[in-house]
């Protein structure tokens, strides 16, 4: 017996905790991170009904299934898009905000970092949605600033 494989076209088989099983449906968009420079888009085409060891398996069809960086048995990160908001104000993810809700961040104004209250909404793979407190063009310090949160301003050198 011989097994024949088409190495010019790839599919993705992903697993996720069964805690999320009720939120998964065929047709949901996904983003596959192949490496730090390359992410590919795709869609869930099938969610297997069997749950084994607390894990659900799903099949993903890639939009670019012939990308030269893909290879057999390649491990990739699969991010499932559960919600999307067009034209949302976003900032890059970082340790300065642990997630959704109200937070204090530092916005650069001239040569000072000014503590500002913001409200964070949904998160994506790379960014947070800003519901209020910031404006387009604001520069935000995304590094850990908890040691300075008691101050209203911090001088930047």
Summarize the structure.
This protein is mainly beta and 157 residues long. It contains no helices and eleven strands. It folds into two domains: 12-80, Beta Barrel (Elongation Factor Tu (Ef-tu), domain 3); 90-155, no CATH class.
Number of helices: 0
Largest sheet data: 6 strands, antiparallel
Termini distance?
69 Å
- Along the chain, the helix and strand elements come as EEEEEEEEEEE
Count of folded domains: 2
Secondary structure class reads: mainly beta
Question: Could you give me the name of the CATH homologous superfamily of the largest domain?
Answer: Efflux pump adaptor protein, beta barrel domain
Can you give the helix content as a percent range? under 10%
SS strand fraction: over 45%
| Approximate shape | elongated
What would you say the CATH architecture of the largest domain is? Beta Barrel
Number of strands: 11
* Rg on CA atoms, Å: 21 Å
Look at the structure and give the CATH class of the largest domain.
Mainly Beta
**What is the third-level CATH name, the topology of the largest domain?**
Elongation Factor Tu (Ef-tu), domain 3
Average pLDDT, rounded to a whole number, is 87
Pick out the low-confidence regions.
Answer: none
